[in-house]
Amino acid sequence: MKKYRCPNARLPGKLYRIHHPESRTTYSENGGFLAADNTKIYKEDSEEEFKQDIVRQFSWDYRGPLPFISLFSEREHAENWGLKEPWQGQRPYSLIKQWTLFAINTEVLEDAVFFSLKELVEDHQVQIPDAAQQHIHAAYICLHRIPAAAITDQRNPNQVLLDRDDRYWERKAAQLDYDYLDGSYDSEREALQENWNTIIEKNIEDAW
Asked: In what residue span(s) does the DUF7587 domain sit (predicted)?
C-alpha cells in the first residue's frame, strides 16, 4: 500500500484527535492511542479491501474493528466536530461532556504510517460517505498506533471553549493593531476628533 501513503515529510507539524466514549480506538496515558485492530496489514494485492476499510472508517453504522486512528489537521475543525458530538446520534442532549481534544506532534512519528483523506479521495478515487465529505481537506488517518510520547497537549470541552474565546479576542486585538498600523485607526480617530472640534466650536459660537 506504499502508493497510498502520505509521506511523513508532508504531514502538518501537529495533528489533532477528538477522543470520545464511542471511539473504537482506545487511549491510555502510558500507551497513547491504539487502533481497534492493531495488527492488520494490507498487502499489495489487497487494494479493494484497503479502500473498503477507509470507507468503513468514516461510516457511523460500521462498528467492526479497523486498523486506523482518525485525526484532524486543523485545530478549529477538530474543536467544531467535538462540540457537535455527532457520535451522540439521536440521543438526548447531555450536559456532561466526555470527550477530549489531543494535540499530536508528528515530527516524532518517523516510523508511523499515515494517509491523507484528501489524497485518497482525489488521487485514488476512494468514495467516502456524504457525511464525511466535510472532512476531506482536514483529515488524516494513522495506521495502528500513536505513542504517548507524541501527545503534547490535551483539553477537555470546557478548556476548549475557553481557548476559543481567548483566540477570538486575540484575533480582535490583532485586527485593532493592524488597523492602527495601516492608518485605519488613525483615520477613525481623526474623524472623531473633527466631530469633537465641530461640537466645541459650535458651543463657543452659541456662547457668544
From this structure: 11-153
